[in-house]
Specification:
The chain has 187 residues and is an alpha/beta fold. 49% of the residues lie in helices and 14% in strands.
Length: 187
């Protein structure tokens, strides 16, 4: 029988803590933009007795996400997803925050949602930041939740002319993550 597969996106400490809790008995594929980060995380997990393998993954690329998922599927059924990848307002531009934290998460949810095994589950790390901005309209929340990922960045509220600064972009990305998870969970 194939081993159950857990996909871990982002090799940071939060992802690793969750992986240690949920990864026992699973094959863990850990992807990060920086190859050395993925390798270090996989080595750390291996030293703790986990079956972990590193992969390079640009979460802002649908092709990279598809390749990452396909690699996971080559080992067995995907039963878990942990997404801790992202950039912060102090690290990146408005465009990068939207591309990685918002679009990348939306694509990851779309693609993983198509293949996750029955009974599978995902953990998507977000932030309280999505709740620290004024409420959006019901139509804006619905658009963040349901707009196909390839069209998300064309929404009027996500145009750089409408975004005050990197913190505002981050807040919008995290609000979108919350709404996408709610939508994808019922699909």
């Amino acid at each position: 029988m194939d081993k159950k597969i857990m996909l871990v996106v982002g090799a940071g400490q939060i992802s690793l803590a969750i992986t240690r809790r949920l990864g026992t008995g699973k094959k863990i594929l850990i992807g990060d933009l920086k190859k050395d980060h993925a390798e270090a995380a996989a080595t750390l997990l291996q030293q703790a007795g986990f079956d972990a393998e590193p992969a390079t993954l640009d979460v802002s690329s649908r092709n990279d996400i598809r390749a990452f998922i396909e690699k996971g599927q080559s080992y067995g059924p995907i039963t878990g997803l942990i997404n801790g990848a992202g950039v912060s307002p102090s690290q990146a531009s408005i465009e990068t925050i939207l591309k990685v934290d918002l679009y990348g998460t939306a694509v990851l949810l779309e693609e993983a949602g198509q293949v996750i095994a029955p009974g599978g589950a995902g953990v998507i790390i977000s932030s309280q930041s999505g709740h620290r901005m004024p409420a959006l309209t019901a139509a804006e929340d619905r658009a963040l939740a349901m707009t196909p990922a390839e069209e998300l960045l064309q929404l009027p509220l996500l145009q750089t002319s409408q975004i005050r600064d990197t913190l505002h972009a981050y807040q919008l990305a995290k609000r979108c993550n919350e709404k996408r998870v709610m939508y994808e969970a019922v699909r």
